[in-house]
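About this split. The held-out portion is used to measure sequence recovery: a designer receives only the structure tokens and must propose an amino acid at every position. Recovery is the fraction of positions where the proposal matches the reference. Here is one held-out target exactly as it appears in the evaluation file.
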């Protein structure tokens, strides 16, 4: 493989919508933290997360990965928490 050829992203379960899709690694620094967190997201959720992060908009589902309970994370990923 040469550097000119695109690579196919690995498939897995999206960290937000929970669907099996090609995943893109999204990294962010949660508010109040000084280290990056990472999650694999499908193209749609990656795009939304990147726009929110660039515009300094809240990403409550992302913050839950750091400090949320299992129930809070499950609710956020299923669309229950916004």
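Reference sequence for scoring:
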């Amino acid at each position: 493989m040469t550097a000119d050829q695109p690579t196919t992203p690995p498939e897995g379960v999206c960290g937000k919508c929970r669907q099996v899709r090609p995943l893109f690694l999204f990294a962010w620094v949660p508010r109040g933290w000084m280290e990056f967190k990472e999650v694999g997201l499908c193209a749609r959720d990656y795009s939304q997360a990147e726009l929110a992060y660039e515009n300094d908009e809240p990403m409550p589902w992302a913050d839950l990965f750091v400090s949320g309970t299992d129930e809070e994370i499950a609710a956020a990923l299923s669309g229950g928490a916004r």
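Annotator remark: DSSP finds three helices and four strands in the chain.
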